[in-house]
């Protein structure tokens, strides 16, 4: 018994130390590119920065930056075209207005630093989105998860390109943590900010339809964001971004995938929207008709995140799988949280083994593959299992 009590004290501390070491190693591995690549290479941030400068009445800033700065890797694409509708809502430019106060190179470096912090911090948010076995175990799991996120190839590409994916993933984790902690107004407001970046978080709104304060905060914050975005000097009304967002998720398969991917992965790719979408919608409908408490609602939201993330992982750019990370992280962290004996370890271990086997975190193989499709399916299955288990627990 003495050994058990001693072990229960030092083992979690050792886990925290190992997790910190893994985080330091991940940052060390990524730092040469993250610190060495100039901010002007953030090609995906450039359209948002241009639109933000336009909102401030400085539309000529894009011309001053020039296509050779951020858009040099896209021959023939002028800054004016890059600052068009793209597939971001108009509120996305409003949310990056603080970065527009800087020149593009400085803004991109600051955006990259914040995105790195978001990926590292997202692990802690996911770890404490459900009751943990103990606080040290939760901290260790959260830090370790942050190390995993920062070591992935898809996150490195997203960080260098200046994409909003890391902030969107962090926002998703923050929304669901606040919802799990019964902070409905905060959760709804955070959801509005996440939707302000991209439409994807709209998908998990049905999971909280029974929460009036959550919906009120969401709608109020969204109305305020859109109103402010339309009142700024350079605002312009365009709804092309809605069609662009849906078109992006329905892009056709890359020709090289048909040769490099096994047949079963291609089948999983072709069925990811309907094959996971229909049971997800049925699950949400069942949750609305037969509610089972807050934890089950949060689990249902993670099921939706897994589905949407799997759909985006099959787009022509694999780095869009970053939006799947909250669901993957929630599955991996389950052993540190409450859950059924044995099963949570088996399921989380299967997902972790699949990530290692596919070599997702190492710089080998083509940058755009369907490697994240099987991971998305596994994360979705684990989220459904957790949803079913949470429904059986006392409210």
Instruction: Assign a percent range to the helix content.
Output: 55-70%
The averaged pLDDT comes out at 79
Number of DSSP-assigned strands: 0
Number of alpha- plus pi-helical segments: 19
The biggest beta sheet is recorded as:
none
Rg, Cα atoms, Å: 21 Å
Query: pLDDT under 50 segments (min length 5)?
Result: 1-7, 66-85, 362-366
Structural class: mainly alpha
Give helix and strand order, one letter per element, not per position. HHHHHHHHHHHHHHHHHHH
Taking the alpha carbons of the first and last residues, their distance comes to 34 Å
- Domain count: 1
Estimate what percentage of residues fall within beta strands.
under 5%
| Shape call | globular
Write the topology of this structure.
Blueprint: H1 2-36, H2 46-55, H3 61-65, H4 79-82, H5 90-95, H6 97-100, H7 104-127, H8 135-151, H9 153-161, H10 165-180, H11 184-197, H12 212-231, H13 240-249, H14 257-260, H15 263-289, H16 294-313, H17 325-332, H18 343-358, H19 372-392
Helix pairs in contact: 1-8, 7-8, 7-10, 10-11, 10-16, 11-12, 15-16, 15-19, 16-17, 16-19, 17-19, 18-19
What's this model, at a glance?
The protein has helices spanning 2-36, 46-55, 61-65, 79-82, 90-95, 97-100, 104-127, 135-151, 153-161, 165-180, 184-197, 212-231, 240-249, 257-260, 263-289, 294-313, 325-332, 343-358, 372-392. By secondary structure, the protein is mainly α.
What does this structure look like?
This protein is mostly helical. The protein has one domain. It contains 19 helices and no strands. Helix 18 runs antiparallel to helix 19.
């Amino acid at each position: 018994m003495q050994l058990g009590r001693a072990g229960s004290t030092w083992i979690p501390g050792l886990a925290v130390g190992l997790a910190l070491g893994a985080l330091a190693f991940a940052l060390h591995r990524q730092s040469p590119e993250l610190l060495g690549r100039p901010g002007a290479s953030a090609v995906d941030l450039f359209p948002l920065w241009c639109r933000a400068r336009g909102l401030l009445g400085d539309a000529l800033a894009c011309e001053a930056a020039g296509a050779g700065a951020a858009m040099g890797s896209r021959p023939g694409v002028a800054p004016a075209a890059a600052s068009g509708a793209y597939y971001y809502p108009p509120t996305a430019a409003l949310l990056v207005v603080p970065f527009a106060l800087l020149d593009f190179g400085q803004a991109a470096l600051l955006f990259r630093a914040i995105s790195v912090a978001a990926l590292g911090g997202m692990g802690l948010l996911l770890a404490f989105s459900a009751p943990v076995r103990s606080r040290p175990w939760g901290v260790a799991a959260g830090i370790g998860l942050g190390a995993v996120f920062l070591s992935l190839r898809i996150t490195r590409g997203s960080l260098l390109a200046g994409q909003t994916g890391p902030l969107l993933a962090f926002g998703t984790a923050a929304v669901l943590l606040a919802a799990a902690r019964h902070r409905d107004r905060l959760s709804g407001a955070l959801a509005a900010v996440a939707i302000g970046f991209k439409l994807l978080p709209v998908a998990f709104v049905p999971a909280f339809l029974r929460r009036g304060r959550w919906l009120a905060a969401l709608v109020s914050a969204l109305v305020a964001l859109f109103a402010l975005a339309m009142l700024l000097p350079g605002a312009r009304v365009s709804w092309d971004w809605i069609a662009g967002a849906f078109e992006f998720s329905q892009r056709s398969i890359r020709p090289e995938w048909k040769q490099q991917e096994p047949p079963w992965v291609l089948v999983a790719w072709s069925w990811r929207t309907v094959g996971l979408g229909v049971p997800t919608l049925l699950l949400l409908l069942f949750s609305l008709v037969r509610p089972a408490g807050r934890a089950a609602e949060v689990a249902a939201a993670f099921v939706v995140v897994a589905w949407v993330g799997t759909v985006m992982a099959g787009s022509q750019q694999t780095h869009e799988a970053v939006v799947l990370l909250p669901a993957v992280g929630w599955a991996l962290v389950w052993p540190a949280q409450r859950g059924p004996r044995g099963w949570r370890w088996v399921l989380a271990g299967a997902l972790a083994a699949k990530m290692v086997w596919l070599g997702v975190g190492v710089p080998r193989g083509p940058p755009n593959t369907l490697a994240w499709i099987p991971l998305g399916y596994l994360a979705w299955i684990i989220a459904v299992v957790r949803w079913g288990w949470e429904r059986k627990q006392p409210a």
